[in-house]
Each structure stands twice: as structure tokens, then as C-alpha cells.
Amino acid sequence: MSADELKAKIRDVPDWPEKGVIFRDIMPLLADHEALNETIDHIAAWAKPKKPDIVVGGEARGFFIGSAVAYSLGCGFVPARRPGKLPLATIGAEYALEYGTNALELQADAFEGGSRVLIHDDVLATGGTSKAMAGLVEQLGGDVVGMAFIIELDFLNGREQISDYDVFSLIHY
Amino acid sequence: MSADELKAKIRDVPDWPEKGVIFRDIMPLLADHEALNETIDHIAAWAKPKKPDIVVGGEARGFFIGSAVAYSLGCGFVPARRPGKLPLATIGAEYALEYGTNALELQADAFEGGSRVLIHDDVLATGGTSKAMAGLVEQLGGDVVGMAFIIELDFLNGREQISDYDVFSLIHY
């Protein structure tokens, strides 16, 4: 399946979660076994030459295929979670979103220093979430070898915020 | 890796998230590429003969490996989400937890009627979450062919609540 065929599985939801926003609903893509499989394979194929050890996915939508990408690559999976969701010592970051603000945490011993880390989220919008995740990974001594998304909203220019990194998005709007 | 070796990757956190609860922290298991791989393979091997079409995972911890199990089985993945997180028409259920209450929703067109569905969550505790997910799946005309967990807290007798279903847990406490 090409990126265009996968894009055809995504549903546009106007004025959700706020008026004026077109939400791209990936539920039909995830529920279609062939589209899910191809989405994971496309992202893993891009990431493989970067030899990641760990995939970090952001709560909650970055968990949808994060571990499947990790499984396909033979990596471990580390969830970046909302504040208060992870036990033991954590580090955290706040950041601005396309709509609102948010925060994420990693456990302080989430991976070994020097690990090669692939950042994953479902959508690259303003880039704020991914930049915050990369900052947390680097604070723990990880090396961000790439960032991979299912969708990129080109008109929000998120790439400008993460221009220091190697970025891949499967589907563009 | 045997179930005992995988269990050794899980960390006990006493008095979290509430006093008197021992939280079983699976983060070190997920972050270890070999342990993650084996956990997914064990669950997929159990589920495969049941020929599921869809894996349903519960927010948020049931997303950690839900799509990886789906990928391994060649299934689609459907996230059961917290209220207000899914666009378009949904159905919902409330249920009691080991600590507190909660609610989950599925999109009304999440899968086709007659689909064979594997329910997945990280932990089988009281069984309330899984029973609620199964009820939602059945409301949409799905056939629950099994329920698979990473961890089962045997002393909470969750299996009694879901005795109508075929249940697998990789690691027991």
C-alpha cells in the first residue's frame, strides 16, 4: 500500500476537538489489518538504517503503533507519559500544543545512557511534543537518531522546531 | 525467555498509586528489546489459534503492546479510549477498578459486525475493565474469542468476572 492508499483510510472530522480544527481520525487505518501492517513496515523501514535501540512514544496516541514499530525493529519501547502516571523517579517537560498545553515524563532510568532513540508520535503538528520528548531523551543521555510520524500537518511548519533531527512522516496534509 | 524470566524484568513499587497497593512496573520489561519481543510472541502464540481479526486494547496501558500483538497476528488494532477522546459516534461503559472507577468508549463503527476480537490489557486485576470492554465489543456485534494479559493479580479473582471467556495471562502474582 502506498502512502496515498494509506491516507485514504484516514477520516476527516471537521471542528473536532475544537471549532476550526480538522481532526485526522486514524482509527479506520489502525483497524484495517493490512493498512496497520503497512504503516508499521513503512516507518520501521525508514528507521532501520539508523539502528535505534529504543522507541519512545508519547501518551496516548504515540502508543498506538509505538511498540509495534519497536517490535518490528527489535527495539525496546519506552512510553513518555502524562504527569503522575509513572512510578519512581521521573524527569518532565511542559510544552505548547496546536490546541492547549501539555506535559510528559520519562522514568529517570528509562534506558541506558548512550542509547540510540527513535522518537515516535502519531501526528507532527507544531513540533512541540516531539521537541519536548527529544529534550527529555537527551537529558537522560540518549542519542535521538530520528523522529517518525504517521501524519505531518505541513501547514503548521512543525519541522522548523525540530530541524536538528532527521524526520520522517508517512502521510502529509 | 520463560514467564519467570520475564517476571524478573518487572519491578515492584510498594504503596503506589495508593498506600497498600504494590504496583507492578512493566517499564523495564517494555524497554528490554528481548523481553518485549518475547512478551508479544507469547501472547500472540496463545491467541493465534483463535483466529482474531481485531485486537482491542484499553487506554492507556493496554496500548503499550496491543498494536504489536495485532501486528504479529496480522490483525487490526482498535483502542478503547477514555470518554471524549474519540471523534464521531461512540458507545461507552463505566466500571469499577481495583482503585476507583473509570469509563471507556469505542467508536460505533470500530469494526464490522461478526469480527473475531481479542481483548488485551496489561493487567487483569478485578476484571472490571475487561468485562466492560467485552460488553462494548459485543454491543457492536463482535465475537470475543479471547482475553490476553501480561500480568494477572490472582488474589483479586478477576477471572470470576470474566469466566464466560477464554483467558490467558503470561505472568501471575
Name of the level-1 CATH class of chain A: Alpha Beta
For the residues shown, what is the average pLDDT of chain A? 96
Q: How would you name the oligomeric state of the polypeptide chains in this document?
A: homodimer
- Please, how many domains of chain A? 1
Order of helices and strands of chain A: HEEHHEHEEEEHEHE
Q: Tell me about the biggest sheet of chain A?
A: 5 strands, parallel
- Structural class by secondary-structure content of chain A: alpha/beta
Describe the protein.
- The structure is a homodimer of 173-residue chains.
- Chain A is an alpha/beta fold.
- The first copy, chain A, has a single domain (51-172), classed as Rossmann fold (3-Layer(aba) Sandwich), CATH 3.40.50.2020.
- In chain A, 28% of the residues lie in helices and 33% in strands.
- Chain A has helices at residues 3-7, 27-31, 33-47, 66-73, 128-139, 158-161; strands at residues 11-14, 22-25, 54-58, 76-80, 90-96, 101-107, 116-124, 143-152, 167-172.
- In chain A, the strands form three sheets. The first copy, chain A, has a five-stranded parallel beta sheet, with helices on both faces.
- In chain A, strand 8 (143-152), helix 6 (158-161) and strand 9 (167-172) form a beta-alpha-beta unit.
- In chain A, helix 3 (33-47) crosses helix 4.
- The radius of gyration of chain A is 15 Å and the shape is globular.
